[in-house]
Amino acid sequence: MNLHFPGLDKGKGLYFLFVKSESKTPGGLTAWPMMTSIYKSEQFKGPLRDHTSPRAAVLCADTSQSMYAQMVCGLCQRHDVLRVGAAFASGLLRAIRFLQLNWEQLRADIEARTLAPCVSGRGGSPPILRRPDPELAQLVRDECRTGEWAGIIPRIWPNTRYLDTIVTGAMAQYVPALEYYGGGLPLVSTSYASSECYFGINLQPLCNPTDVSYTIMPNMAYFEFLPVDDTTTGEAVAPEGDAARLVDLARVEAGREYEVVITTYAGLNRYRVGDVLRVAGYHNAAPRFTFVRRKNVLLSVESDKIDEVELQRAVERASELLRPHCASVAEYTSHACTKRIPGHYVIYWELLTTGDEAVGKETLDGCCLEMEEALNAVYRQERVADGSVGPLEIRVVRPGTFEELMDYAISCGASINQYKVPRCVALPPVIELLDSCVVSAHFSPGLPHWTPARRND
């Protein structure tokens, strides 16, 4: 990045970083997300001289308090900020939404040299707030009270050179919103990594978000690739029968898609990460890969991932609430809606009723919560603890809607003999068709059950 933006070491980065709770394996080992492991490591200790956020703010387990403290520190050092970012695009948008909702309290705290009681009770005001800044407080007021949020990032942080966040895969849906708030600032995805392994870096960081590719670093692990048209589903580790079809890094073909398989220093042996990549070209002789998708994943708003089997199981569990009303789910599909922040899951239901009684609002609201209870722990944690996913929504559509959906697919060239109802939709015309048939919308009335694991130390 210094090749493109000289002098980055002369300023700071406003990065919104958060930890998540840990759990224990049956053998007593600590299990937590990769980023939490990094933030709590010995290497991350000490002052973060190139970040606006103090380490204590990053390690605060309460996401709302952590966000507040990091935003205050970022505002107080606005002229030092040369880059703004978060791990995922959704996280950066959550920060902007937080500013939209809390700018008045932020302004008051900056002017009064204090933090809101809910935050300051966890350790007092940071040193940066120990002097009044009425000029900054007035600027926050002037920029935020008008309700004009286009280009808000460079307006408040005028020296920002670029936005640093992941915009590939499921995060691509957030690019228009980032461009709106970023006012033309470059969107940069610098690297590609997972909890299992670090893969590579983007050697063309200023490319268009749709053209982001990563050059695999062969010293990170031993990489092999399974052509996607040869893969079987539901396997976590490549079985012996796939060994003959594996291709090593030097023999992948440009333009072809592969599922990545890794053997790592930490002990994973031919482990199928679940990422599907496309060979986009080469950097010298090293292949560059575009992230295509997570294998078998239907829904994702942030780091949550729901596949078809899990969605089906959730629908079946929720539909049990319909039986006393002589109703059932005839067809369904889904969509990850990101028009609002945070994003949320939308499930379209076409109901089949055999009785005279209509299914009431309370029952359908309960179905939303029942679906959330059936989803995985990562989803429930992000709903309950992180607030990074909004309440699940069920939109009931009128009878015959899914026949219209099939007619539309056939009109676009699909074979009537091979047509299957898609369990997730993303095309705007399809979503518009479904939304035009909605007769009622229902949201989860509460939070699903989620309890952080207790620490033994």
UniProtKB/TrEMBL annotation:
GO terms for cellular component: cytoplasm. InterPro entries: GH3 (IPR004993), GH3_C (IPR055378), GH3_M (IPR055377). GO terms for molecular function: acid-amino acid ligase activity. It holds the Pfam family GH3. Residues 214-294 form the GH3 middle domain. Keywords: Ligase. Residues 310-426 form the GH3 C-terminal domain. Belongs to the IAA-amido conjugating enzyme family. PANTHER family: GH3 DOMAIN-CONTAINING PROTEIN, PTHR31901:SF98. This is Indole-3-acetic acid-amido synthetase GH3.8. It comes from Triticum urartu. The lineage of its organism: Eukaryota, Viridiplantae, Streptophyta, Embryophyta, Tracheophyta.
